[in-house]
Write a structure and sequence with these properties.
alpha/beta; Lyase, Ornithine Decarboxylase, Chain A, domain 1; TIM Barrel; 9-stranded mixed sheet; 8-stranded parallel beta barrel; 20 strands
Length: 404
Amino acid sequence: MIYKKNRFYIEGISSEKISKKFGTPAYCYSYKKLKENIINFKNFFKSFKPMICFSVKSNSNVNLLREINKFGLGADVVSIGELMKAQKAGINVNKIVFSGVGKTTKEINYAINKNIFLINAESKSEIIEIEKIAKTKKKIVNIGLRLNPNTNPQTLNQISTGKKENKFGVSEKTFLSLVDYIRKSNFINLKCLSVHIGSQILSHQPYEKMLRVLDRVIKKSRYRFEYIDLGGGMGISYENNLKKLNYKKYNIAIKKFLKVNKSKIIFEPGRSIIGNTGFLISKVIFIKETKSKNFIILDTGMNDLMRPALYNAKHKIIPSIKKNIFSKSKYEFVGPICETTDKFSTLTKFQKLKEKDIIIICDVGAYGISLSSNYNVRPKPVELLIKGSKIIIIKKREKLEDII
């Protein structure tokens, strides 16, 4: 992902060529970057060889899941639909973990029938439902129990999941009483302690605090957990000045934890695997000039990329062709959707643009297409995998006829 002769390339293909051949907006993923991210993640924690279950909610494209499966990763799913997609991609059921606070009877039933590795339960009601279904099937079901460690992940409130006011997991007191309840069950095997404190975490310190809480709770429970599921949440650098997560320090903290607690580790990374592989190629439809700023109106909107509208998230925007002529006006990059929140970024220094120019929104691989919608009756974009000088269509552009 570099400029060659002032033209932006994703691996061996220029963004101009992609836009001419496939139109805009277009989601593009770099295979090389995906491979690099998976290998790096494995290397960070190679001393204890964790089970790595890719978080399907971050990107559920079946063809991308197939590529991820080839590297031996499992799947972390939060719905029957994600579970079915993981299966369709060929991911072994022995590497599938089912998380989420609101699993229906139908979903639990399906997961038990498929003999998935683990159902991570998040309430007493859910445990009772699992037990009831297991009893009718005369099966012993492996579960994890999700603890809410009341740990501030130092991230956005909207993507924090480990504080006591969040809906996820159970309190320490409830956790300990549920361990005792499960001990007496003939149909549930408590295999795992599960935890996940949030997303886009860029400091190792919340993880260290989380591990200290786990250590204390495990001692109190007097229970030997075969697995500890540490969730995911590892952040990526969306802006040039953002700090990066110190994996080395996180690795040291886990190894220290494992000296006392002889368990196997599960991770559920999503963003750190797929986030920076993705680019959204878009075209400037109109430029609306005002006294305070110029609106750069794109053909991609919040229906294609929801993160800025939903979280006020920042994504780098770069030109397809570099020119050394800069605009004197402030640029506000907006979409065509009838919502004021349909905007991507406001930049005071950007090269001068004209209508029909191509721009690229970066780092959209995670929670880009998976949060997209047909709002304003707009078809979803094409999805492309770039492999060297090869372009593979991994999801066709929707047609209006498909959604009308």
